[in-house]
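Input sequence (267 aa), recorded before submission:
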Amino acid sequence: MKVDIGNHALNCEVSGPEGAPWVTFSHALGNNLDLWNGQVSLLQDRFRILRYDQRGHGRSDAPPGPYSFADLMADAVALLDHFDIDRTHWVGLSIGGMLGYGLAQEHGNRLLSLTACDARPDAPPDYADYFQYRIDTVRASGMEGVVEPTIERWFTPATRQQNPPSLDGIRAALRTTSPAGHEGCCEALKRLAFGSGLARISVPTLVIGGGEDKGAPPEILAEAARAIPDCRHVVVPRAGHISNIENPASFNEALEEFLSEVTMAAA
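Predicted structure, token format:
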């Protein structure tokens, strides 16, 4: 379904039993809500699940850019309001996890917990430069220009050599992402700056990421986790940046354990 939140509409899906605790899933750059199919299957018997396409991604509208994380947070809060969600567990990967850091700092009263997957909290100069490269490449060659370089950056050599069908799903998502939406989100990523506020996060937090992630390596995530008061850090072995796709068994085990513990503690 599409939800009108002002000057644009966001595509979203809701599943799971009414009255169950909410879990909201937020995907990575160049992806869409299908990124979470495996996790929805895992959790939808026990949780009410909201997942959505970020602005400029999937079947959501692409308002004119550039975007900021304040814009992306406003989108998320508007969706929570639309569905009368007082509080939700937030699970986000890459830009979705970064968005979660911001929500936990600025709208912590709306969250039950935060799971930040493969999401660093700040953008040093070389990281910001990478997103300018993506902008320049798409302007010159369209989204096709970033498809294979992204696969190389996001996945381990072993997975790329095997080339499982899941990689074709990521390729298709990248190709169908709006260039304007991609650029708008890249502009937000260039200005990522949530590290200084991590100590203000008061909800239970899981920081999880692939052991071979180039963009959000384990040492960066470990440092972020140490700054958050109630936080655990899990490294997913044999996985790069899209850890829930590359090693779903290890990822799902950690996510399910965390959400179950947080839900039991709140009961």
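Checked by second reader. Residues 2-266 form a domain with the Rossmann fold fold (CATH 3.40.50.1820).
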